[in-house]
Amino acid sequence: MRSVGISAPMPTLLINPDSALNLIQVIVRSGLCLAREVSGKTTTIVRHRNIYLEGDAELIMKLVQAEHSIEAPVGTKEVGRIRQTISSYIDLIKPHVTVLLLGTTVAAMAIAYQGLPPLGLVLATLLGGVMAAGSANCINCYIDRDIDQLMGRTQRRSLPAGKVQPKQALIFGIVLGIGSFIVFTAFVNLLSALLSFSAILFYIFVYTLGLKRTSAQNIVIGGAAGAVPVLVGWAAVTNTVTLPAIWLFAIIFYWTPPHFWALSLLIQKDYEKASIPMLPVVMGEAETRKQIFLYSLLLLAVTLILFLLHTMGYFYLISAVILGGILIYMSVRLLYGETKKWAKTIFWYSNCYLAVIFAVMVIDRLVHF
Question: Global pTM?
């Protein structure tokens, strides 16, 4: 093979048909800038920015031409950056957590209303709820950005990954909180606004700043913030908080420890690295397994109160016993098991449990079994 006008040694990439995909990736990454082409017996050398591509001439040209359909126009790139920014801010509000909270809120509204509440009221409550949960989660991310960098589960969040600046995240969280209070006050009622705002303050000051890094009971007490949305939903419909609403709150309150302690067993090393005194770190695995079992028993007992108060009927009773029994069975297997396999199962099932038991409540109130 002879060469023409190649004055300085450059990295050469040998190309064959089997490496076509890799070549496309190289072309897209380095950009298109063809300079010279020199033919030999079997190969062609093409200068592509700072890379020489050597291989079959026809294959190289086809791959380079394919770049024109792969490389995005400037306008498309700008849209992509905007989407990435929006995605990064959405990540701050922890949508996977927020969705579950909103589900319990709507369920509480339906239970209190004994049917389907007016659509406008539901939408206003959901909007305020999204903003309130987003505010609490966003400010939590701002406060915990130092330890999030240390934990594998949280390293890809927007702040540790550098996708959003801390000051911007804090401002975003504050704006969401204020906006939530305004939405609830204007379109729902003052009681729901006060309950929602109190949950934000509790989550930030009591849990995040107070308990999370100092007490093994952080999840137990801090879980109250996650239980407030059912009170908000109940208040949105009735403008009061009555005894059944308190027991809905209690269900989520007692559900929280087994759910998060199961997770803490799975990522115990992360919590140790970040010096967070979760129960497995402070008391050990054996005690954590025992506490998961005990709280599963308490959760079942609490769910039965709604039937005893005649708030729920027999359909709910049977469902609550089955759902709670499954959780207790899993906690027993975890208690006496030698591995953490059942911790993962409990963490997954507990998410489903909360969604299903609130759905059962709604059905029970609608159909009146």
Answer: 0.78
